Amino acid sequence: MKRIASMTAALLLTIGSTAVAQTAVVLPSEVRTYVLEQSTPSVAYEGEIVVGQPIPETVEIHTIPDQPDFAYAIVNDQRVVVNPKTHTVVEILQ
User: Fold this and answer.
1) Are 45 and 55 in contact (CB under 8 A)?
2) How far is residue 74 CA from its own chain's centroid?
3) With contact defined as beta carbons under 8 Å apart, do 73 and 59 qualify?
4) Is residue 16's pLDDT more than 50?
5) Cβ-based neighbours of 73, under 8 Å, separated by 6 or more
């Protein structure tokens, strides 16, 4: 019985930490507007761009003035907002 309780507790901790890790990021409207207005050339990339996953370090990201928590890239003609420290995709703008 103690083993089942331990396994259940471990499972709940794993599920809880996964839910916390997937919290949504609220994108400021200034960031969205700035990225949509840029005419940066698109970079071709063979893989799929997925929110929550990093883009390759080889993809050049561009800073956003007065927004140190966000950067952007245009990949496969998609405007992608990323975390500049981790290159993790925050949002794909449509």
Assistant:
1) yes
2) 14
3) yes
4) no
5) 40, 43, 55, 59, 60, 61, 62, 80, 82
Amino acid at 39: S
Alpha helices (H) in 1-94, listed in sequence order? 2-21, 29-37
One-letter amino acid at 31 equals V
Q: Which two tokens stand for residue 30?
A: 């200034």
Contact status, residue 67 vs residue 84, Cβ threshold 8 Å: no
Per-residue pLDDT tens over the stretch 18-66: 444 556 788 999 999 999 999 999 999 999 999 999 999 999 999 999 9
pTM of the model: 0.73
Given a cut of 90, whether residue 82 has pLDDT beyond it is: yes
The residue assigned the tokens 């949002």 is: 91
User: Token pair for residue 39?
Assistant: 């005419």
